[in-house]
Amino acid sequence: MREIEDPVKSPVIQEIIMSNRIGAISVELAKRLNIAPEKALQLFYESQTCADLHDKSTGLYLYGDLYVCDEFMREKGDGM
User: Fold this and answer.
1) How many helices and strands, by DSSP H and E, does the chain display?
2) How far is CA 36 from CA 22, 41, 52, in A?
3) Which of 1, 58, 69, 71 is 20 to 30 Å from the Cα of 79, by its Cα?
Protein backbone atom coordinates (compact mmCIF):
# COMPACT_ATOMS: atom_id res chain seq x y z
CA MET A 1 0.00 0.00 0.00
CA ARG A 2 1.33 3.44 -0.98
CA GLU A 3 1.84 5.92 1.85
CA ILE A 4 -0.08 9.17 1.39
CA GLU A 5 2.21 12.20 1.47
CA ASP A 6 1.35 15.10 3.75
CA PRO A 7 0.50 18.05 1.46
CA VAL A 8 1.59 20.52 4.15
CA LYS A 9 5.18 19.33 3.69
CA SER A 10 5.14 20.43 0.06
CA PRO A 11 7.71 23.21 -0.60
CA VAL A 12 5.00 25.27 -2.30
CA ILE A 13 2.70 25.02 0.73
CA GLN A 14 5.60 25.77 3.07
CA GLU A 15 6.37 28.95 1.10
CA ILE A 16 2.71 30.01 1.29
CA ILE A 17 2.71 29.46 5.05
CA MET A 18 5.95 31.44 5.48
CA SER A 19 4.62 34.30 3.33
CA ASN A 20 1.45 34.42 5.41
CA ARG A 21 3.47 34.48 8.63
CA ILE A 22 5.72 37.28 7.39
CA GLY A 23 2.64 39.30 6.47
CA ALA A 24 1.19 38.83 9.95
CA ILE A 25 4.53 39.71 11.55
CA SER A 26 4.77 42.87 9.42
CA VAL A 27 1.28 43.99 10.45
CA GLU A 28 2.16 43.52 14.13
CA LEU A 29 5.45 45.39 13.70
CA ALA A 30 3.62 48.22 11.93
CA LYS A 31 1.34 48.55 14.96
CA ARG A 32 4.20 48.45 17.43
CA LEU A 33 6.32 50.94 15.50
CA ASN A 34 3.45 53.12 14.29
CA ILE A 35 4.58 52.85 10.66
CA ALA A 36 3.00 51.67 7.42
CA PRO A 37 2.81 47.89 6.99
CA GLU A 38 4.84 48.17 3.77
CA LYS A 39 7.67 49.89 5.65
CA ALA A 40 7.47 47.27 8.41
CA LEU A 41 7.69 44.55 5.76
CA GLN A 42 10.77 46.16 4.25
CA LEU A 43 12.47 46.53 7.64
CA PHE A 44 11.66 42.94 8.54
CA TYR A 45 12.97 41.55 5.24
CA GLU A 46 16.24 43.43 5.78
CA SER A 47 16.67 42.10 9.32
CA GLN A 48 18.71 39.26 10.77
CA THR A 49 15.51 38.08 12.44
CA CYS A 50 13.98 37.42 9.01
CA ALA A 51 17.11 35.59 7.91
CA ASP A 52 16.93 33.49 11.08
CA LEU A 53 13.23 32.77 10.47
CA HIS A 54 14.12 31.29 7.07
CA ASP A 55 17.13 29.37 8.44
CA LYS A 56 15.73 26.07 9.78
CA SER A 57 18.87 25.49 11.86
CA THR A 58 17.99 28.42 14.18
CA GLY A 59 14.61 26.94 15.13
CA LEU A 60 13.02 30.39 15.07
CA TYR A 61 10.40 29.16 12.62
CA LEU A 62 9.02 26.99 15.44
CA TYR A 63 8.08 30.02 17.53
CA GLY A 64 4.93 32.11 17.24
CA ASP A 65 4.63 35.33 15.30
CA LEU A 66 4.55 37.53 18.43
CA TYR A 67 7.79 35.96 19.65
CA VAL A 68 9.37 36.65 16.24
CA CYS A 69 8.21 40.28 16.56
CA ASP A 70 9.83 40.46 19.99
CA GLU A 71 13.06 39.11 18.50
CA PHE A 72 12.96 41.77 15.79
CA MET A 73 12.39 44.50 18.38
CA ARG A 74 15.34 43.20 20.45
CA GLU A 75 17.50 43.13 17.32
CA LYS A 76 16.68 46.72 16.48
CA GLY A 77 16.92 47.90 20.10
CA ASP A 78 16.08 51.48 20.91
CA GLY A 79 17.36 52.72 17.56
CA MET A 80 13.96 52.42 15.94
Assistant:
1) 4, 0
2) 15, 9, 23
3) 58
